[in-house]
Write a structure and sequence with these properties.
With 108 residues, this protein is α/β, with parallel strands linked by helices. 41% of the residues lie in helices and 16% in strands. The protein is built from 4 helices and 3 strands. The protein has a 3-stranded parallel beta sheet, covered by helices on one side. Helix 2 runs parallel beside helix 4 (76-94). The longest helix has 19 residues, at 76-94.
Amino acid sequence: MKEIVFNKNNYGSYKDFYIQIYRDLEGKEIPDWEDYDALHYNADLLDEFLWYCHNDNIKYIFVNFDKEKIALQKIFDNYQYNIIIYYFEKFVKEYPNNKLEYRMDKND
């Protein structure tokens, strides 16, 4: 199973997260998605895009995503992160050949 790690500490905002999702899932290589850089930062597009990867057997590892803190949505970025997390969790439920794991760095 392929692993893709998304570390929240590497992002200045949720937009950087979209950029990495698109890059790591090779959006440019999927003909229907080649013109959707960073999925236009749109969760509806993310939901559809993930479907194109449903047979890829990927373990998504979310590092330093404090779901409780993000769920409070005190800032706009957390609102957006919450939506992205929702779609990934929905995706792995629908396609259990893919996995989602949360980790926190010990230093944080």
